[in-house]
Amino acid sequence: MLYSRIGCAAVLSVVAAGALRAQDTTVTCNCTAVHVHTPTEFEKRSSGSVTFIQSRPQGQLAQNIGFGYGGQGTYLFRLDNRGFAHLRGDLALLGYGVERKHVPLSPTIGGRIRVDVSTTNYVLPLSIGPELMWPTGPVRPYVNAGLGAQVFWTQSSVNGSDDADYGFANTTNQSDWTSTWVAGGGVFLPVSAGKTTVSIDLGLQYVAGGRAQYLRPGSIQDISDTQISITPLESTTHMALVHLGVRIGL
Question: Please, what are the domains in the chain?
Answer without folding.
Answer: 40-249 (2.40.160.20)
